[in-house]
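Note to self: the last two entries modelled the partners one at a time, which told us nothing about the interface. This time every component goes in together.
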Amino acid sequence: MVEIGQISLITSFIVVLYTSIVGFAGGGLNGRDLAQSARWGFYSLPILLIVTTITLIYSFVINDFSVKYVAENSNLAMPSAYAWVAFYSGNEGSLLYIAAAFSIMSSVSVLILNKKLPYTAPYALGVMSLVLLFFIAVLLFMANPLEKLPIVPADGKGINPLLIHFGMFIHPPFQMLGLISVAIPFSVCIATLISGRGSRDEWVDQGRLWGMISWLLLTIGLILGGWWAYTILGWGGYWAWDPVENSALMPWLAMTAFVHSIMVQKRRGLFRMWNMILIITAFTMAQLGMFINRGGPVPSVHSFAESTMGWVFLGVMAVTLFLSIVIFVFRFDTLKSRGVLESPISREAVFLSQNALFLLIAFVTLWGTIFPIFSETFDETTMTIGQPFFNKVNGPLMLLLIFLMGIGPLLPWRKASLNSLFKMLTFPLILSILIVSVCLLLGLTKIWAIFGFATCAIALGGIIQEWFRGTKSRVKRGDKIHLSFIRLINSNRPRYGGYIVHISIIMLAMGITASSFYDVQKDVVMAVGESQSIGDYTFKYLGVSQEVFPDRIEETAKFELWTNGKFVDYLYPYRAFYPEFRLSATRGAIHSNLIRDFYLVPSDFKEDGQALFRVLINPMVSWMWISGPILIFGTIFSLTVSSSRRRKKIKLPIANSIFESRSL
Amino acid sequence: MRSFGIYIFLFMFLLSACSENFKDMNPQELRIISLNKEIMCPVCPGESIDQSQNDLAIQMRFIVTKLVNENKSDQEIKEYFVERYGEVGLMEPSANGFGLIAWIVPWVAFISTVFLVIILIRRMSSTANSEEVER
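The predicted structure of the combined assembly is written out below.
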């Protein structure tokens, strides 16, 4: 079975070698047959890599411990559903996952690019082939997941117990695919540069489409990662500014900047160079992320896929960056802006500042992540840069970002007067002043938290105002309220979809602000039968039961939770000890509602029957998890074209294009 | 206007929940937690002793509580741990010596970004104006 996978992996290597040469040749010689041949070759890659993937997963399912990777990452006790998780839980398997997933996604993109950008598509195919070539070469020569062991062990080492969680079925796949998918808009951009068609702006729609898809994947990966950390790692938090988290955040920041500034190019023909720089930066950061994750130089809690090949990734990153810059410099002259920035008070200008801010946050994050290396080399002291540093430095910057998010959409393209800006800001400002006074009335005194809520209120106020005005003008024309709201949103999906995403970001920001400033945390020692209260929560420790599994010993505590004298729920936090890994994992029990989470983690069960627990009351955390689906909906909505618009386009192509240029 | 009212109501509701939580924490406890967040667990890289559920981290939390109860200042407590585990034992670099660079660079970056954006917007919009004059 494994041999089949091995053969298809070797075949895929030969094919991708062929497509990367023929792709560029097809573009350069303008050879249609060459380009077509490269395309058909490229379409075969997902099939070949899926075959390899299936053989590996199958080896997990049948517990074929003659395969080294299977023996290292699973055992007989592992439920077979976790074969999927085990498949990417180690270095080799995760590389195979990345290659397979990327080959599928890039094949779809080649299919579309070929129709939309026939002249640049062969180059894009070439660039994507090179990316795949790297991964397949590494798989074949350095980290082969299908490698056999000389002696077949009776049982495997087992999967890392921290990965046994529902979130692990989706967080790593999204995160890894998100990071590698940045390569697609990157390829579109590099292909445009190589073909010298940068002055035509024809790549913008495709760049935006793939940029947003990759942005969405990265966002889902980040939110799921936070959710996983919150529910399983048992420390009551969701984000720790860990190096690997940072390295996933940095490309996200650059991509967020990109999906905004690409709109400026689409609408106004500005920022041509800037967009190219952004996407190159994003891809470099995505590669850096993969490097840090694979045996990078900084210690992290994410060292699941750790290996010694981090340096290979770093080398490839350097080469990619160098080549990108060379290509960029050679095509510099094709990137002069079509339009001009007419006024500093315009949406373009806010977008520019917002872009700069995103990159600044990415830079500061990078700085904090790699500073320990500096201090070690130059000062010979090891230093840690952890959560407090990033909170202090990035917190205010992110607040500023949300403020810009509030005023950006209020400003029109081209130019506005200061007067009209103030007029637009009246309602949002009143709203935020109201919020501040409510905060003060309630006795909230933390200045940064109040700032945070006020900024969120400005951003939300702006969106409400926009929606209200748009709906009102439609109601005046005689439509019903709910219909006119839906029609308004439908009339310009990129814009109103964007607002939906903004609302989810506001929810995220509110959740983060509330939970990081107003969380309550207490470590309590309790005997069986004892009850304690914090605020209006009362919790009673009913006892602990021990259960022995083949791979772990679980101690589960039982609690009764009451609020204001009313019974709410039973809670079962547990602590599991995995003797083979000499690792204990705690799983908190969470009672969650829209206002706050009651979070209970067992820290230690003592011999004398007493137990140590940590109790956390985290306000508004659930808002962050709710924001996820809203964000996904908003993003997909903004990428789709409304049916009414499609109809209009056929009937009135000219009128529609005028309408389009004015509306966003 | 009604949606506005609902929104305000919701907000007040949420904030009241927050404030209620907040009043439960006495300053001493808050201080212990914030200290825990600044001290790293030596055996679990990247995690503070507040985060980690490791036995050593639990012990270290007890030491922090003890030192706070002995009326030691934040600085003294941090130094206590730096003596034992080195500078690496703090979650953020100290604001003196080499660690100061870590704090200065973000500021420098911020200020230069602001200037860069201002210059860029000015330059881009001034070319616009001059073109208009030419026209």
